[in-house]
């Protein structure tokens, strides 16, 4: 049965927005990706290096959608159907390459994520104040590192990088 919303890969637009993943979750999607690549003889190109590079490119394409948006515009990006479709497509590309990368190296992505969260809960215990509410950081700057891309002798431009799972990026001059 053909749906007018069916793309040339047999996936409907409803599927792309989360309305119809009929397979068995991540494991099923991983099997589909392996079969898709095998049917096209792409396995020789699916090396960890190539997949990591492709993942990085797709993540950059996702970032590109938000690059010049204000925080308020970014919050509303899914309200526009065309933007929402672009975001969903790039998220799918990032996830596809991440799952293929994990397959190439024998990593269980859900187990890796669970282990990382466990480690971070130990490394960064939640601070509580009265009634069990989480305390806001004393200083927003404590959540950020700074990378200075300016050549010496030029005006400095700081790029604020958020703390992500304990990763701090900084440059000391």
Number of strands: 4
Overall geometry comes to: globular
**Number of DSSP helical runs:** 6
The share of residues in extended strands comes to 5-15%
Radius of gyration from CA coordinates: 21 Å
Helical coverage, percent range: 40-55%
Defining traits:
single chain; 173 residues; mainly alpha; two-stranded antiparallel sheet; globular; disordered N terminus
Please give a structural write-up.
With 173 residues, the chain is mainly α. 48% of the residues lie in helices and 8% in strands. It contains six helices and four strands, in the order ααααααββββ. The chain has helices at residues 13-16, 25-39, 48-66, 71-75, 81-105, 109-123, and strands spanning 128-129, 133-134, 144-148, 158-162. The strands form two sheets. A two-stranded antiparallel ribbon has the order 1-2. A hairpin with a 3-residue loop joins strand 1 and strand 2. Mean pLDDT is 76; it is low at 1-19, 138-150 and 154-173.
List the helices and strands and how they pair.
Layout: H1 13-16, H2 25-39, H3 48-66, H4 71-75, H5 81-105, H6 109-123, E1 128-129, E2 133-134, E3 144-148, E4 158-162
Antiparallel strand pairs: 1-2, 3-4
Q: Summary?
A:
The protein has 173 residues and is mainly α. The protein has helices at residues 13-16, 25-39, 48-66, 71-75, 81-105, 109-123, and strands spanning 128-129, 133-134, 144-148, 158-162. The chain is 48% helix and 8% strand.
């Amino acid at each position: 049965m053909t749906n007018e919303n069916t793309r040339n890969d047999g996936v409907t637009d409803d599927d792309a927005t989360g309305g119809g993943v009929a397979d068995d979750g991540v494991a099923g999607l991983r099997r589909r990706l392996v079969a898709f690549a095998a049917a096209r003889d792409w396995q020789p190109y699916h090396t960890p290096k190539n997949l990591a590079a492709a993942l990085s490119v797709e993540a950059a394409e996702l970032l590109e959608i938000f690059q010049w948006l204000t925080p308020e515009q970014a919050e509303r990006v899914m309200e526009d159907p065309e933007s929402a479709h672009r975001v969903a497509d790039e998220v799918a590309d990032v996830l596809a390459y991440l799952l293929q990368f994990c397959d190439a190296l024998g990593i269980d992505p859900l187990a890796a994520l669970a282990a990382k969260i466990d480690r971070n809960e130990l490394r960064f215990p939640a601070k509580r104040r009265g009634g069990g509410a989480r305390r806001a950081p004393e200083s927003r700057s404590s959540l950020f590192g700074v990378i200075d891309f300016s050549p010496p002798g030029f005006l400095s431009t700081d790029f604020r990088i958020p703390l992500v799972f304990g990763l701090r990026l900084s440059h000391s001059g």
